[in-house]
Amino acid sequence: MLRNSKGFSIYTVISIIAIIALAFILLVPQFYNVKAQEKTDLCIENMKKVRDAIDNYMFERKQSFSGDLVELVRTGYLRHAYECPENGNGDKYIASGDYETGEIIVICPNEADFPDHKLQ
């Protein structure tokens, strides 16, 4: 077997390196808070879908939108009522659209707790 002068085999060295690499791979996401960023990105993506659905609703119907996302689902502008991925308690977005001005507002219900959940 291949051993250096101190008695470590090549397999021991490779095993130690593999264990350190595995620990590094498992711990890096926690240090950089990757999950929180994924949830923020998903929330913003959901709000963009809701905004686009309201825009289509107002363009086709020539009227302002007021109501909840269930109305957009019922009329076929959304596939389902999107909700914020944080906390997992079914918090649906607050949305409205003014046909006259073209202004569309979509607000995350968890914006107070997660200030980066804003649609730009």
Read across the widest sheet, the strand sequence of neighbours is 1-2-3
Q: What global shape is seen?
A: rod-shaped
Low-confidence stretches: none
What is the straight-line distance between the termini? 63 Å
What is the mean predicted local confidence, pLDDT? 86
Largest sheet: 3 strands, antiparallel
- Give the count of helical stretches: 3
In which range does the helix fraction lie?
Answer: 40-55%
Number of domains: 2
Please report the total strand number as a whole number.
3
String of helices and strands: HHEHEE
- Structural class given helices, strands, pairing? mainly alpha
Radius of gyration equals 25 Å
Strand content: 5-15%
In words, what does this structure look like?
This protein is mainly α and 120 residues long. It has helices spanning 10-32, 34-61, 69-74; strands at 65-66, 94-97, 104-107. It has a three-stranded antiparallel beta sheet with strand order 1-2-3, with helices on one face. The termini are far apart. The mean pLDDT is 86.
Which properties best describe this structure?
three-stranded antiparallel β-sheet; mainly alpha; 120 residues; 3 helices
Concise summary:
48% of the residues lie in helices and 8% in strands. It is built from 3 helices and 3 strands; from the N terminus they run H-H-E-H-E-E. The longest helix has 28 residues, at 34-61.
